Each structure stands twice: as C-alpha cells, then as structure tokens.
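G., before I forget:
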Amino acid sequence: MLIDDHTIAASRRRIAGFRLHRPVTIDEACDLLARFSDGAMLHAGGIDVTNRMKRGFLQPHVIAVQQVAGLSGIRLGETEIEIGAATRHWDIEIDPGLRHALPTLCDYVAGLGNIRIRMQGTIGGNIMAAEPGYEMPAVLAVLDAELVFRDCATRTERRLTVDQWLEIRGANPGPLLLTSIRLPRRPIALAWNRQLRPALSLVAALRHDGTGQMRGRMAVTGGSSGPLIADIALTAAGREDPDLGLVARAWVDRLPLLQLPLGPDAGYCSEVIPILCRRLLQTLSKRLP
Amino acid sequence: MTESLRIHIKVNGRPESAEIAPNLMLVDFLREHLGLQGTKLACDQGACGACTVLLDGRPVTSCLTFAFAADGADLQTIEGASRDNGTLSQVQNALHDCGVPQCGFCTPGMVMMMEGFARQDPLPPGQTLETWMNANLCRCSGYQGFRRALDQLANEAGNP
C-alpha cells in the first residue's frame, strides 16, 4: 500500500505532492537544476525548505542533494579551507582539523540555532535560505570566504565573494548550485556578539595585511535579508588607540544602516551597534595573532 | 501525479520497508504507518522538540524531516529507548525518579534528546546536556523537574 498524505490524519500542515529527484553526482544535480530551472527546490538538510513548503511555497520538483558525492566534508589545504555546501553545522563544530586551523569558526558555528538545527542543517542551506537572522553569510563575509558555484547553464565554476553573491542573488543569477565554501587559511582574529540576537548580532574579524596595517571586517545580521558589511583599515598605532569607542564609531559609520527595512529602527541601531562594536574590538585586540 | 518511492529504514533495530509518497513526513510515517505513537507532533515547525528522534544517532525533528530523507538510516524512537530487557534506561529512570512528566507530551522528545547527547563522541568543548536541552520546550513549564533529573544524571556519571 502506498502511504501518502491522504492516509495521514495527524499532520496539520500538509505539503502538496512533488516529484522527487535524488542525484548522486554534481553533474546529475546540475542537469536537473538546469532542466527544471525555476520549478525546482534543492533539499539538503531540509529545515528551511520544509518549513517553506509547509507555509505554502511549493515547487513541482525537489532535488535532494544530501547523497551527492563531493558536496559534503571539510578539506584542509595549505592556503585554503574548503567546506562542502552540504556539510552539516555539527560536522563543522566537531572536525578536529578545522578546530586546529580555525577554532573560532568552530566555536561560532556552535552558537547557531539549537543542537537539532545544527545536526540537521547545512552550511549551504544557511547561506541560500537568505533569512534575515541567519548568521553564516556574516561570518563567511568577514573571513573573506568565497562561495564556489557550479553554473548549471554553462557548466563552469563561478567563485563569488559573499558580497558579490549578495549583490547578484536577487537578480535571477540563473541555475547555480553551491558546491563549496573556500576560506583563506591565515592568522585572523574573530569575535562576535549575540546578546541582541535575533534582532541584531555582530561578527568581526581583524588581521594583519602584511604592510603594517590591520584590516577589519564587520558584519551585522538581523536587520535585512543579508548581512550589512563594513571594512576598516587600522594602522598599528590604531590598534593601541586607547579610545576604542572612536574606532568603533568610525567602523560603524561605514555600515549601510539605511538599508534596514526589517529589523530594529535605525535610531536604536545607531546607539547600540557602536557599543557592541567596541566590545568586539576589545576581544579582537586580545585575540589578534 | 506524485511519484512514489520505496524506503528501507531500521527502526529501533528492526528493518522496515514501505512504499511512500515523497511528501510524507517522518513523524507521520512513524505514527501512522508503523504505529509508533510515542513520538509526538506539536508545533509542526521544528521549534519545540516534541517530535525528536535519533537519525543515525543524531537528534532531528521528525516533523521537519521527510521520510525519504531517512532512507537507509538507523532510526531510534522513544519506543526503543528502554533497555533490551524492557526496563527503563538511565535517562528514563532519572526522569521518573524526579517526577518530571506532567502532561507528558514533551517527555519523549526530551528523553530522545538526552539519549542523543549520551551517544555523541567526541563532544566539542562547551557542549553540555543543559545547553542541548535548551532546544526542547515544555508547555507545562516543568523545567525544574528536568533540572533535577539532569543533576541526578550528572551525579550518576560522577560529574556533579
């Protein structure tokens, strides 16, 4: 007997029928994505996709990519760290190599959602869901990560920074399959503040750029569909500046705060973000290698 | 027309196979097809944890997991939480001793979360059973009982 939703009495939010595809290679997944184009949803961990389907957002085709070879796992190179798009958050938390190479990223991921979400959800899903409170795009942006896509129309690889992805994602960039995330492997300090999550959370990174300056990147999550990002360059003297409040204010002034349609009001943000930023600077100055 | 597929799952150590529709949720497969009604459906959006089961040893919300996603997996539900001889597990004993269950609706999910925690090896730094339990809600607000049970488990593990 076929078990379908007509035999189920208990489920209160039924999901309409769809055609399921279970590719096992990236090429197969790409073929499906190109063929069905706008009529398909990708399913990896499935948390956001399923909740969206329960809210009525449906597509006739669902492409389940959890079994696709090469989409999961963490590979440590000499100059880069590569994380497969279908890697679950928990696997990032517990990976011994990553914990050795970039322990603060593991600690950051350990603070996402709750344990069930981290056990089930994937890093690619967190990025592609484009939900205002989701934090992976923010931390990847400040770590200068690149998102590696397979362009399923041209069969070519496209490497985009998080900033570039945020710019093009709303403009129908075509059938793109996120395959991995690549992070430069270098000394970097990372700090975050989630005291006001989900309304606001901040993450920032600071590193030496090899020319006697320090480069800082900060991302604010919660106010818009993607993180708001600001860069700052500090001289070595700036690092020792006792008035971190001034540095924080200068950094925050570079944020595009006027693009906050969904979150707390701009007045509140202008007051509280510099305070949180100053705390981040205190932490970063201690963690800077 | 929705395509169907056959899945094979080991549930509480017992192999199961069924022809399902792709849109069937795991919680419905367990409750309606296998008759394992200890797994509860509450919020239906992955927030409360009442439907928690262990999928290959990891706690997941069965209300947000399609049955097809469990194909080939080893699944454990509350019905498989007790010991092989039918007596209560250490976690269940602690909850019983501390008088935790009130309406009982959240209890299966709480037990499965605790069982899931006990199975993780290795645990990353900073992970505690208490932080894991933040993911589960009790609408009777019986959290003090759960706290006592957690303390009892910690004492039994020699880690008060």
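The mean pLDDT of chain A is 88. The longest strand of chain A covers residues 176-184.

More on Monday.
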